[in-house]
Every structure is written in C-alpha cells, then in structure tokens.
Design a protein that fits this description.
- This protein has about 525 residues and is an all-alpha fold.
- Helices cover about 60% and strands about 0% of the residues.
- The protein contains 24 helices and four strands.
- The strands form two sheets. The protein has a two-stranded antiparallel ribbon with strand order 1-4. A two-stranded antiparallel sheet has the order 2-3.
Length: about 525
Amino acid sequence: MVLSLEDYVLTGGDLGRYQIFLAIVSSSTICMHTFCLTLEVFTALSPTCQFSTDKWWCPKKCSLQNICYAKKCNFSWDQPNLSIISEFNLFCQDAYKAKIVSSYAFLGYTIGCIFWGWMGDKIGRVPTIHLCQFLNTLLLYLTSLTPSYESYCLARTLTGFTACHWNTACVYATEWGGKKNRSFTLLAHIVYSSVAFALFGTIAFYVRPWRQLIVALSIFGGVVFLLMLPALKESPRWLFCHNKKEQAVKNVQFAAKVNGLPVLYIADVEEDIVLSESSATETESVWLLFQRPRLIFITATFYLTSAANVLIYYMLKFSAEKLSSSPYVSCWLLALSDLPSAVVVYFCSDVKRRPVNFWVQLIAVAFCFLCCVPQVRLASAVLCMAFAAVSFNYVYLYLAEVYPTTMRNRVTAGCIAVAEIGGMVSNPLVLTTDIWDILPFLIAASVAVGPTIASWWLPETKNRPLPDHFIDTLNIVYTPEERPLVVVTDDEMASPKDKTSAPSFFRAGLSADLADSVSSRRDIPSLVDSESIELAE
C-alpha cells in the first residue's frame, strides 16, 4: 500500500490525547509573547502626583497634563516606582518616550521573526521553541534591573527579539495531525492569548510597581519553560523533510501508543530505503514564492491582512487606559473579547476558509470605524478586537494549509514580521488622540480596507491535507483546468534525487485492518496528485 506523508502522520492520530497535550503545552508560549509585547499597558501607566505648595496659581489637582504648565509648583509622585514615567521622568516634552517604548519591542520582534523562523526550519521546531523561551524569560528578568530609559529600551528590543517562539509553536502543533488537530491548535492559541492578557491584568492589579511586575512575569515564564522542556517531541513532518526518518517513525509510533492506536512498523529493509529516499527534500527556498505573480499576490495579501489586524488589535489594547476609567477593567474586557473568537474559529474550521476570512475581517473594520462614536466606543472596541482576533488567527490556519512543510515556518515568521510593523506603529498611533480623539480608529480602519478586499481572491483550502512540498502548494493555488498549462521548473520539483517526479510517496507494510483504520481516521480527501501539474514541453 502507498501512503502520503499526511497519511503516515495520521497513523499517530488526528486529534488524540497526545495531540491535545502538545497543543495545550506548546500554546503556553503565547503567554510570554503577550506579556512582552503589551508590557507598557501597565509599566507606562500615568502616575498620580501631589503639589507640595499652596500658592494660588498652583492647580488644585495634580496630573501629568498640568504639571507642565505649573513648573514653579513643586510636586511629588504618590508612587514613584509605579511606572517608568515617574521613574525615568517621561513627562512634558519627554512624554512621547513612554509611548514609543513598545515600538522597540515590536522592532525586535520583527527582526526576531525572520531569524527564528529560519532557525525553526533549519535546526527544528522544538530546539527553537526551547531556546526562545529560555532567552525570553532571562531577558525579561534583566529588564527589571535596567537603571535608565536607554537601557530599558535596549532590553525591550531584546525581549521582543526572543518573543517569536509562539508562531513556531503553532506551526509545530499543527504538523502533528490533520484537520481536527489544526482547528484545536488554533483554538488553544486563541484561548491562551485571552487568558494571558487577563492574567497580565490580574498580576498587574496586585503587583503595581513596574519592576516587581516584570519579575513576577519572568517567574511565570521560567515555570512554563521548565514544564515544557521534557514534554515536546520533534515534528515528524520536519524530521521526514530533513531525512531523519528513524526519529520521525519513533515519534509517530509514540503518538500512536499514547492515543491507543495500532502502531505502524516499516515492513522490511527495502521499503525502509524507499522511505528514506522519498523524504530527501530538506528546506526549499522561499524565493520560489516570488517567481509567480499569483503566489506574490497571495503572499502579499496574507502579510498585509495580518499587519492590518495587528494594527487594529494592539492599537485598541494600548488604548485600554483611554477606553474606561480603569485600565484594569478595560484589560479584562478586552481579554474576554478573544474568547468568542476562539469559538468562532473552531466551528468555522469545517466551512470554507476564504469567505469566513473575508467577512470576519470586514466586520472587524466596520467595528473599528464605530469606535469613532464615543457612546459605543468601549463596546465597539471589544467587538472589533474579537473579530480582529478571529481574522488574525484564521490567517495562520490558512497559511499552514497553503505553504509546504519545507518552508512553512519561514513563511509564517515572515508574515508575523510584516504584521508587527502594524504593532510597531500602534502605540504611537494612540498619541494622535491629542490631535483628534477619533483619529487612531479612522487610520487603523482605513488601512485595513485594501487587504480586506484583496482577501476575497485567496485560494480555498477546506478539506486539504497540509502540503509538504512546494509543488503541493502549486496544486492548491491553481485550479484543475489551469494545472496542465503550468510550467514547473526543476527547482520547484519535490526531490533533488528525482527531478521528474511529483512529491514523494513512500511505501510501508500495512495490514488490511490497519489500512482501514488509517483510512477511517483520515476524513479528508486526498489532494489531487501532483503529477497533474505537467511540464510544458
């Protein structure tokens, strides 16, 4: 019997106990990602103050706004160590510095996505996740020791650089099963994102001084690292694509045992060799995506849609202090906005990707425009974040189903790197409220209109198995009628050992009962054979 790589991975289960465990454990990395990128929501709170003189020209109430106009009135901070604003004197002409700190974190994150995305494809998913989690926790702790504003900005850049492991963790978990596993992994990531922001607000409520708050968050990251260290086994898809067949087989067999499924063993030495040769392809160049106009359009649409979602999402998060009288209440409400999106994403996994992504993004843009109305601003912000979170996470489910295993982590990381440009400008965008209170919402919503319209022309991937080679991606983006006209170059073929064949299939000894078991577990139809893409003479 001949099986594809998708079939073989599914012999370890689609959404069994082991896949659920991996999705939950790997998704915990998003907590540190959330802490690192939204740290200034609470470390840059506006501190309260008191005037120490009773002169008639001194205002009765002290605030960041009037101390600049009452320079001869001595004042003191109620809690000098509450915020970086009070500790580093970021007020009056230096007030903008508190708002741009998060941009340094997003800058580091953007650079880190490119680097760690390449590392995830090169050295493996699990080593990359572990290394990032350790460095991120260590650097976050060192941030609490910074003595000046400049050193704080440097530390924030470095923590952002190492906060990129959640996207590798998402790719890692989706590669362990089929359609059901991908949906559950996405659900777990959204729930963790919501819980992480709510947890952040809760910790900040009880630990007010900014240095102690950062220490508390780094302790949480250390606990996650220690729990995750022995739990993760390398992705069998990555191992097969890097010719590490023996370890891949062991991992799939381990998953099957944990899930209580029949264990698939390689029948004999000859078939063992076939299996090894069939997986000879390692990483394929991402530059293949920029040699076809259709792939350029699809990739650009994914990237710009993500950037628009991140701009809206983080602009609203950084506006928490302005959305209601208490930043903690706003934080908890905004955190709750992610939970409905988790339910929507999970149940939409069985419907067509393209229309869901389009309409969800369109609704998010509409609610962002509604944030311009003060009477419904908080409610609109919560709903806008909910739909933006659906679209933001849906894009990564979409990416996994369009791009192959040989470049999936780099493409996803590149998408996040471009998306974080939106995050980089989101906090400074909040400063435009001093010009016009609705300007941030108008700008963010207007930027999102173009990518939203373009997303209507993305390819449909419902019920498709994960592609493992670039030629599988061509099979997705071109219709059956177009495939005979597509010219496929040698670089686009799957295996360097066989430039004339489609992506590899390998043989394994299966009993009839086990074959039926695999077939019943794989409830998604096979992808049209890649040989339908014919070489034009």
